[in-house]
């Protein structure tokens, strides 16, 4: 029996369940499998959506909030992951607290954090009482999307922490000792030893967080801007309120294309940092 025949059951399920759904969405964007009208192959729906300024505003809004939310989660996860490598009192309790957002559904988290970032929420009331600001700041449902960014950072920080903490913990101690013996400061040790060795974990967490943020609906529906829709909200409104399922299929494909393109860009941008310091790491070990 050929070994590759053993892959047939798994690949068959993937092709049947995922491939068929993808095929239907692609075909629907070109006028096939219509739910509400006649079925005919056409480029009309693509032409309509690609010339719609609302779509491009949604692309800009979703890409901005997804990028900044991912960047914020990764940048915040690195120092916390390094801090967790130390011996801390009640470390298990700290780790459990940091991972708590993973067990909160996105819609519930949106309503919970709205009390924090609302116009008269905890942050604004605290800043007012301290005299730092004269009037409350608009953080919820703002035009730029800061409320979405804060929610994405809070929700995705635990996931980034799991990957980065495990990656940092797997670094051999002799490499870290070698960098210290050679006179490297903590910052240089991080830049030339820890960061390059954790690039794969950072890439994986960045790609998965970004894709999840790009297709997020729950945060945008509660705390999102009232002047711009996220791509997920635009797709939902187009399909369920206007019954334009073909146009919604076009938006779905655009989301998938943006996710795939962004994954490639993240990989291409971060990969050089993992390779340019490789000779130095080898010299440090020797």
Describe the structure.
The chain is mostly helical. It has 2 domains: 1-42, no CATH class; 53-285, Orthogonal Bundle (MetI-like fold). Helix content is 72%, strand content 0%. It contains 14 helices and no strands. Helix 3 packs parallel to helix 7, helix 3 (53-83) runs antiparallel to helix 10 and helix 7 runs antiparallel to helix 10 (199-214). Belongs to the binding-protein-dependent transport system permease family. CysTW subfamily. One of its GO terms (biological process) is transmembrane transport. It is found in: Cell membrane. InterPro entries: MetI-like, MetI-like_sf.
Topology:
Elements: H1 8-29, H2 44-50, H3 53-83, H4 91-98, H5 106-117, H6 122-130, H7 146-169, H8 173-181, H9 186-197, H10 199-214, H11 218-223, H12 231-240, H13 245-275, H14 278-285
Short description:
Its main location: membrane. This protein is mostly helical.
Low-confidence stretches: none
**Based on the structure, what is the oligomeric state of the protein chains?**
single chain
- Structural class estimated from helices and strands: mainly alpha
Shape: globular
Q: Rg to the nearest angstrom?
A: 23 Å
How many structural domains are formed by the residues? 2
In total, the number of strands is 0
- Give the second-level CATH assignment, the architecture of the largest domain: Orthogonal Bundle
Q: Main sheet, how many strands, which sense, barrel?
A: none
> What percentage of residues falls in helices of 4 or more residues?
over 70%
- CATH class placement of the largest domain: Mainly Alpha
Output the helix-strand order: HHHHHHHHHHHHHH
**CATH level 4 superfamily of the largest domain:** MetI-like
* Beta-strand fraction estimate: under 5%
Between the first and last Cα atoms, what is the distance in angstroms? 47 Å
pLDDT averaged over residues: 85
CATH topology of the largest domain: MetI-like fold
The helix count comes to 14
């Amino acid at each position: 029996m050929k070994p590759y025949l053993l892959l047939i059951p798994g690949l068959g399920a993937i092709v049947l369940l995922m491939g068929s759904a993808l095929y239907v969405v692609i075909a629907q964007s070109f006028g096939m499998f219509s739910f509400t009208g006649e079925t005919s192959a056409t480029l009309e729906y693509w032409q309509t959506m690609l010339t719609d300024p609302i779509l491009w505003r949604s692309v800009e809004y979703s890409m901005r909030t997804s990028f900044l939310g991912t960047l914020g989660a990764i940048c915040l996860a690195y120092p916390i992951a390094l801090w967790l490598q130390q011996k801390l009192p009640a470390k298990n309790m700290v780790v459990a607290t940091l991972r708590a957002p993973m067990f909160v559904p996105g819609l519930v988290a949106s309503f919970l954090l709205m009390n924090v970032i609302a116009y008269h929420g905890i942050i604004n009331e605290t800043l007012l009482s301290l005299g730092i600001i004269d009037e409350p700041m608009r953080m919820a449902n703002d035009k730029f999307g800061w409320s979405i960014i804060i929610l994405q950072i809070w929700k995705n920080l635990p996931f980034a922490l799991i990957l980065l903490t495990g990656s940092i913990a797997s670094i051999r101690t002799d490499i870290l000792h070698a960098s210290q013996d050679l006179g490297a400061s903590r910052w240089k040790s991080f830049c030339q030893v820890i960061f390059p060795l954790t690039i794969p974990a950072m890439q994986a967490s960045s790609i998965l967080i970004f894709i999840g943020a790009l297709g997020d609906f729950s945060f945008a529906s509660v705390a999102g801007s009232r002047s711009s829709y996220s791509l997920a909200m635009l797709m939902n409104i187009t399909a369920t309120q206007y019954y334009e399922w073909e146009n919604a299929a076009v938006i779905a494909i655009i989301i998938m294309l943006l996710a795939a393109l962004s994954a490639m860009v993240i990989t291409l941008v971060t990969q050089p940092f993992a390779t340019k310091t490789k000779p130095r790491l080898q010299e440090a070990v020797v």
